[in-house]
Amino acid sequence: MACARRGRRGTRLGAAGLLTLSTLIGTGAVQAGAATPQALPAGCSGTSPITCHYAVSPGNYDVTVSIGGTKAGQTETWAEARRLMLPATSTAAGAVTAYSFTVNVRQPEGQPTGQGGTGTSGLDLRFGGSSPQISAISVKPATRPLAAYLAGDSTVCDQPAAPYTGWGQMITPAVGPGAAIANYGDSGESSGSFLHNSALFPALLSKVKADDPVFIQFGHNDKQTSASAYRSNLTSMVTQVRAKGGIPVLVTPPVRRLFSGTRLTTTALHVNGVGVNLPAEMRAVAAAQRVPVIDLTAASKALIESLGPSASAQLYLRSSVDGVTDNTHFSQYGATKMAGLVLQSIQAQHLPLAAYLR
């Protein structure tokens, strides 16, 4: 797509040995030649990882990073609370690739209630990988970007510490410049608690602009919620988002990894403790309110059952790998798979964010 073509471009160091970007904050340059050590951009320190901090106010920022330099490298790019912006990218010695994205900066930078820590004010970037190489960084305020808001629980949120990973942290590499993911997901939230906590839905709603999509996923923590209360909570969020000119999108919850033989149990499929089939209720609200629905329950069910009880374990947390066994929360790999299912539906339904996907 056009935004993907705008997001990357390759270049090599010229005869003068200097690569520059027009920058507001964090200007850096790279000198060619083995005899000259590569200088880090302003605001950055370390070698592996390289960490960079910029004292900006909350808001949305267009960021361009020049990956590569005088040495061959492999670089991953992360922003704020473990949001992956660029998977591991290899560059040859002397080659530099400019990569652009838009970052939503908040405080707290991860979960809105501060679970897992509040992070630091401003914008934080982290460059990992086997041999990270950074030549220059540009940060500037974004001009009227599309903001895609995420309302959800621990399977969605910006989890501050590995191995737990929300799919909202893994959707970001697919989003090109001009659109930012504003993840207001928070651990332990039900549809009702999220709706009424001033740090969550009211805070999200206050920032929604015309045509901003708001993706709403709840179910994991609605274990005792009645059908009528669940429908009422979802309908209230849909109505309020619409009143601000935003575009609500309902997302049915991804399945838990709970098998009976080769099939997932009703608990895995979010039939709750009082017998309410939560995904079915969400689909009914979507039909009644005429809003798009991403059926992540059905898509994740098909994926997990196709893998079976053994192979599907890698999508969740395993004691042998992660130090904990958890059949609800995702590993980074699993969150990436869930993000891919969400992205497929966004593209298939031509939802507002689709135009910005790489």
Overview of this protein structure:
With 358 residues, the protein is α+β, with helices and mostly antiparallel strands. The protein has two domains: 2-141, Jelly Rolls (Sandwich); 146-356, Rossmann fold (3-Layer(aba) Sandwich), CATH 3.40.50.1110. It has helices at residues 2-7, 167-170, 191-196, 201-207, 227-243, 278-289, 296-311, 319-322, 332-348; strands at 8-12, 18-19, 30-31, 44-45, 50-54, 59-68, 73-79, 83-91, 95-105, 123-131, 134-141, 146-151, 179-183, 213-216, 247-251, 259-260, 263-264, 293-294, 316-317, 326-330. A hairpin with a 2-residue loop joins strand 16 and strand 17. Helix 5 (227-243) runs parallel beside helix 6.
Write out key terms for the chains shown.
Jelly Rolls, 20 strands, 358 residues, 5-stranded antiparallel β-sheet, 5-stranded parallel β-sheet, disordered N terminus, globular, 2 domains, Rossmann fold, alpha+beta
Question: Topology, please?
Answer:
Layout lengths: L1 H6 E5 L5 E2 L10 E2 L12 E2 L4 E5 L4 E10 L4 E7 L3 E9 L3 E11 L17 E9 L2 E8 L4 E6 L15 H4 L8 E5 L7 H6 L4 H7 L5 E4 L10 H17 L3 E5 L7 E2 L2 E2 L13 H12 L3 E2 L1 H16 L4 E2 L1 H4 L3 E5 L1 H17 L10
Parallel strand pairs: 12-13, 12-14, 14-15, 15-18
Antiparallel strand pairs: 1-9, 2-3, 4-5, 5-10, 6-9, 6-11, 7-8, 7-10, 16-17, 19-20
